[in-house]
Structure formats: C-alpha cells, structure tokens
C-alpha cells in the first residue's frame, strides 16, 4: 500500500506534469471508486484547471479551479500512470482524467477511491488523521507517544496516532532505531524515544529522496519512482542477511500485521 513517501513522490512528480493544466474530459469504468454518480463527476471536473496538488498522510488532493477537491486514497494495489494513449500500461483503469493528448490513469482502485469534495468537506473527511511525522519536534513526539500504550507496530501504523506510516516504513523505522516492533510504547526509555524519533525522520526523508518503494513508474522515463525498494533493510527481506549484524531477517505476524525485523540487533 502506498505510504507517505510514495504519495509525496506522486505529488512532486505529478505537480510538474499537470499543475496548471485543464482537465479536458474524464472516463469512469468503476462507479464505486467515486462518491458521486459518474456523470456528475465528469461534469464537475471537465474544463477545470488543476491549481495545485497537496498530500495529506496517504491521501493526494487535487485542488481544482472550481474550488472543489479530488481526494485520492490508493489503498492496497492502487497506482497512477500519466502519459499518452500509446504509452498506457496494459491494465484496467477505474478512472481516467484527460489533459489534451495525455491522460492520468487511476489503476487498481478496487479498495481505493477518488472522491469529489468541497474544501470544507475535505477537512471533515481528514479530521481524524493524527499529526504527520515531519510536523513534530521531539517534545511533541513524546506527548504523542504518551497517548498510546500499544506496541510499536500497531502505533506507527495507526493513522489516528501518526499519519502516513504503514507496514513498510514502520519496520524500516524500528530497524534503524534498533527497536523490536513488539516493544510497547511505555517500555521505551527517553533515549530510545529519541532514537525512534530520529529514525522516523531519516527513513521517511531517505524514502522520499529515492522515490518510495512502489515499482511501477508514473510515466515513461520515470527513473525516480520505486528507487527505495532496493534500499529497504528489512521490509520484505525475510531470510536475507541483516546489513548490520549478518543474521537472517525474520518475518512474523504481529497484531495481525506482517512484520520484518532482525531478532539479533533489534531489542
């Protein structure tokens, strides 16, 4: 599932592709991906300019010249592609936005969605999100930690606790911090809290720098998207050698979530 770095990569790259452009038309093949009828959606977006793109946690927001906002959540299996009809991947598209010769294809929206809202509605939709990692200083981070008593895996992936982190980056953050994902928040010393805070920032910044871990390119010639996958230390690396101590990476289920860690150098 795309997390904060993947959606930030989309925001940065798509802004260069479509910001300021006018949507010349739209197609919908899966009405359940929308929150309005397809005809109403097409009428609402056609002829409107994309003023800017914004990311909130794992959501991407398309601000239109009509003062309406498209709110995208890709969920599990969703991704985007921008290009000409000749360049498009051989996949099924749930929604397509046309930009006079190029299209933005929304792919894999079986669980995800593209909803149309007013600006006021957006705040209501997203108000349950917890603070984003980059908005917190260490003292504020400690206050957030004090509000929950669960293990690290559950806490870091809880979008009402901290927003934007999911399965991949929770494991990578715990590894860099040298902490087991099964550790409970109250068990962390202040020094461990600081390690966790610093690891959170460094992992997410590195992942954004290298385009996140999702492999599918946003457009033909995209050399950024997915570059972090090869840099993951533990996520999806079961049985591989730990880059820090040489022991094999362990896979386990923790609170019904898949989890990768090094049992030797995380404690």
From TrEMBL:
Residues 233-267 form the FPG-type domain. SUPFAM superfamilies: Glucocorticoid receptor-like (DNA-binding domain), N-terminal domain of MutM-like DNA repair proteins, S13-like H2TH domain. One of its GO terms (molecular function) is zinc ion binding. It comes from the Bacteria. PROSITE patterns: FPG_CAT, ZF_FPG_2. Residues 2-100 form the Formamidopyrimidine-DNA glycosylase catalytic domain. One of its GO terms (biological process) is base-excision repair. Keywords: DNA damage, DNA repair, DNA-binding, Glycosidase, Hydrolase, Lyase, Metal-binding, Multifunctional enzyme, Zinc, Zinc-finger. It catalyses: Hydrolysis of DNA containing ring-opened 7-methylguanine residues, releasing 2,6-diamino-4-hydroxy-5-(N-methyl)formamidopyrimidine. Coiled coil: none annotated. PANTHER family: FORMAMIDOPYRIMIDINE-DNA GLYCOSYLASE. Belongs to the FPG family. This is Fpg/Nei family DNA glycosylase.
């Amino acid at each position: 599932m795309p997390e904060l770095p993947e959606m930030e990569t989309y925001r940065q790259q798509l802004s260069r592709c479509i910001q300021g452009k006018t949507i010349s038309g739209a197609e919908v093949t899966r009405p359940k991906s929308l929150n309005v009828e397809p005809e109403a959606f097409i009428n609402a977006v056609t002829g409107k300019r994309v003023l800017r793109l914004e990311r909130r946690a794992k959501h991407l927001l398309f601000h239109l010249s009509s003062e309406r906002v498209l709110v995208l959540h890709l969920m599990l299996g969703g991704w985007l592609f921008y290009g000409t009809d000749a360049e498009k991947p051989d996949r099924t598209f749930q929604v397509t936005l046309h930009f006079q010769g190029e299209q933005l294809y929304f792919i894999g929206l079986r669980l995800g969605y593209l909803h149309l809202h007013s600006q006021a509605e957006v705040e209501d939709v997203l108000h349950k999100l917890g603070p984003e990692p980059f908005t917190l200083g260490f003292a504020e981070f400690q206050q957030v930690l004090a509000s929950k008593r669960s293990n690290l895996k559950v806490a870091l992936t809880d979008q009402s606790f901290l927003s934007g982190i999911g399965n991949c980056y929770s494991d990578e953050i715990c590894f860099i911090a040298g902490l087991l994902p099964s550790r409970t928040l109250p068990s962390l010393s202040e020094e461990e809290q600081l390690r966790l805070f610093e690891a959170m920032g460094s992992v997410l910044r590195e992942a954004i720098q290298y385009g996140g871990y999702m492999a599918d390119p946003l457009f033909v010639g995209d050399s950024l998207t997915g570059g972090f996958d090869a840099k993951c230390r533990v996520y999806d690396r079961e049985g591989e050698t730990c880059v820090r101590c040489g022991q094999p990476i362990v896979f386990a289920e923790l609170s019904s979530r898949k989890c990768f860690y090094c049992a030797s150098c995380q404690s």
